[in-house]
Amino acid sequence: MSASKIAPYHRPAGGWGALKNVAIQLVTQGIPLKGARTLLSANQPSGFDCPGCAWPDRDHASTFEFCENGAKAVAAEATRRRVTPDFFAAHSVTDLLALDDYTLEGYGRLTHPMRYDAATDRYAPIAWDDAFTLIGEHLRALPDPDQAAFYTSGRTSNEAAFLYQLFVRQYGTNNFPDCSNMCHEPTSVGLPPTVGIGKGTVTLDDFEQADTLLLFGQNPGTNHPRMLGELREAARRGATIVSVNLLHERGLERFADPQSPTEMLSLGGTAISNHYVTPACGGDFAFVKGVIKHVLERDALARADGEPAWLDDAFIAEHTHGFDDFAADVRRERWEDLERASGVSQAQMQQIGEVYLRGERVIATWGMGITQHRHAVATIQMIVNLMLLRGNIGRPGAGLCPVRGHSNVQGDRTVGINEKPSPDFLDRLGQVFAFAPPRRDGLNVVDTISAMRDGRIKVFVCMGGNFAMATPDTPRTWEGLRQCDLTVHVATKLNRSHLVHGRDALILPCLGRTEIDVQEGAVQGITVEDSMSMVHLSYGINAPASEHLRSELAIVAGIAQATMGHALGGVDDWHWYVQDYDRIRDAIAATFDDFADFNRRVRQRGGFRLPVPPSTRQWLTANARANFTTHPLPHEMPIDVARRQAGERSAEVLQLATIRSHDQYNTTIYGLNDRYRGVFGQRRVVFANAQDLDARGLRAGERVDLVGVWHDGVARRADDFLLVAYDIPRGCIAAYYPETNALVPLDAITDGAGTPTSKSIPVVLERRAA
Ligand SMILES: Nc1nc2c(c(=O)[nH]1)N[C@H]1C(S)=C(S)[C@@H](COP(=O)(O)OP(=O)(O)OC[C@H]3O[C@@H](n4cnc5c(=O)[nH]c(N)nc54)[C@H](O)[C@@H]3O)O[C@H]1N2
Ligand SMILES: Nc1nc2c(c(=O)[nH]1)N[C@H]1C(S)=C(S)[C@@H](COP(=O)(O)OP(=O)(O)OC[C@H]3O[C@@H](n4cnc5c(=O)[nH]c(N)nc54)[C@H](O)[C@@H]3O)O[C@H]1N2
Ligand SMILES: [Mo]
């Protein structure tokens, strides 16, 4: 690993750096040339869906699209390293807990089912059937099924997720905390009342036709590298690209396509953004409102002068509701209040308003910089308002594009992983499988943690993910996990969640998406849904990491059979579904009209797209219209509240945004560099504005502790970070997740969506004693 240093990066994103880093990853994971074959099969017709991000690819049938971070995700799964029973015999859980997350996952793939033994403080092998029996005993012993919770991380296939929710609902609870609760939940909550569906409305074809792209709070150079290909094409054909981001992210500024010989040889790359706006943390809500205010003002002027209107009057009249109230509210806002709340000047809001007016086909995208804030739902609805003004939804080249995270997080939701299922869905599920699904709303992620802490959740099953690290308020989450009677983790690699366990604990190793899945002698494919609602098949190509691995589906069936004794839908044994995954797809098709003829359609080249009614201007809202939503600026922004609570330290409070480095996949750390941001060989850094440092008598290069400020008076801290002077708005700092999750209070959540506000946590900096 390279020595630690801070050195600004001036080259474009992508380019030679990307190729070099893939080679380094292959060597680190012990993958020889064969690795190249694995990489070339990502997103190919007969290959597997990339386990990296949820960005779609051209009809799943095009030439290989190079993606550095997709390659890292594949290499991490295809690693030659193994965590065997011998490994567990040699290391106590207490010893393993002392290691960092990078080291833990670096040990490689899990090979055997393991059970915790308190007498030796070690995990020891257990037979699969005994593991299932143990889970069944625990679950059946609970007096109330609501005392169990079932987490899903978004890599799980549609088939596994469907079977999982079917079993859990037969068992009797809707307790489905899900990674989505920490991710795009505000999108899933904010969009349905406005456009009738909680998903994006565009396809890649729309990206090809758009003349204006508004990119809010996402870092595609790292988290969705294949999206840079679309942005590069757009930039080259003269589309106007506006980035709205707390930081000047390299990938949003310049990109060199590793597959373009000219860009690689000239070292220059393509400029991406024409305009770059850096609002304060959480300032996007007021910023978008300011842009809208300009649009309304220009429209009013044009009309007064007898010029053509700027608004799409016909669309607003025919398709929308609520315009007058909304417009009146926007007109009432004063520019100085919008400036203060956004951290953006009136002039720049007007400038971007002008860009929006000139755009004939506008797409708005957003990521975690928008969703992980107190006012995320309002911000997303304000973006929708902006788009509705000129009919930028439901026509070619225009629309909404929330950019999802995990490669199947959207699909898991579609097939029923939802702690607040709709009555219609439950009715249908009950009809198809002849049972009475539970009707009570279940618990989301933060509610599950609270419920564990006060003993209301006793059994916790995780289908993937790393709950102990990905969730907020780390010490409190750990308290909760340790109070459980049983924790179960279905996983590919060792992580901290396996070490912060209940009294009984199991680790159940599963096949990854890159691996060949054979049931009853036949190779099985699974399906996933990408960020643009395309559903396609995925087949692994590598031999399984161990002969003892089972597919997630087989594991769900094993748990279900041991718990319930019989299956649903006139089937005796849950394993019947797993013998041929087509059977589960038939069950999905019977439950959801949108999946009619699933098995045939998914075998068409490129798969199929689930219906997205707003993309053809059909609005499945209560009033069958697209709705403008009115959201006045709050009297106090979250940071003002925190400052008030901080008492005499009020002037010191900063807003911390917790973000991803280039060398990580959520809690999986691939390496210690974040090269586009100039960070090498380390992760405990905090990016701060030089003037903020001066004002606090601090200097870049010093080490500091981050100390939380919250109304409950609980001491929250994350210690020992290197201060890096950075181009970031005043009052804001940024540092990597998950090291900073201890600072995120459990009740710091998005209004209406329960998502941790991981992008604006009030903290103060304290110099460490030398
Ligand atoms: N390689 C890799 N790929 C991934 C992941 C990964 O960890 N590694 N994670 C996957 C997952 S689950 C997800 S959800 C996505 C996440 O992908 P992103 O949404 O890109 O996630 P983040 O890195 O958390 O950062 C979001 C961006 O928001 C900006 N930001 C922070 N606060 C604000 C703000 O208040 N306003 C604005 N406008 N911008 C702000 C940050 O500067 C950063 O550029 O990526 C997915 N893909
Ligand atoms: N402070 C802060 N916290 C955050 C965020 C943030 O920006 N800031 N982002 C949030 C977001 S957007 C998300 S999505 C969550 C992510 O939360 P999670 O989805 O819970 O976390 P991951 O790190 O993606 O999970 C990694 C683990 O998944 C397991 N795994 C990998 N592949 C498979 C597979 O195919 N099957 C199974 N069964 N297991 C597998 C491996 O054991 C690996 O260790 O974190 C959230 N937490
Ligand atoms: Mo995510």
From TrEMBL:
UniProt domain Molybdopterin oxidoreductase: residue ranges: 109-489
InterPro entries tied to this protein: Asp_de-COase-like_dom_sf (IPR009010), MopB_CT_YdeP (IPR037951), MoPterin_dinucl-bd_dom (IPR006657), Mopterin_OxRdtase (IPR006656), Mopterin_OxRdtse_a_bac (IPR010046), Prok_molybdopt-oxidoreductase (IPR050123), YdeP_MopB (IPR041953)
Cofactor or coenzyme needed: [4Fe-4S] cluster; Mo-bis(molybdopterin guanine dinucleotide)
Domain Molybdopterin dinucleotide-binding, first and last residues per copy: 654-761
Gene Ontology cellular-component annotations: membrane; oxidoreductase complex
Gene Ontology BP, a term: cellular respiration
Molecular function terms, GO-annotated: 4 iron, 4 sulfur cluster binding; formate dehydrogenase (NAD+) activity; molybdenum ion binding; molybdopterin cofactor binding
Keyword list, A-Z: 4Fe-4S, Iron, Iron-sulfur, Metal-binding, Molybdenum, Oxidoreductase
Family indicated by similarity: Belongs to the prokaryotic molybdopterin-containing oxidoreductase family.
Protein name: CbbBc protein
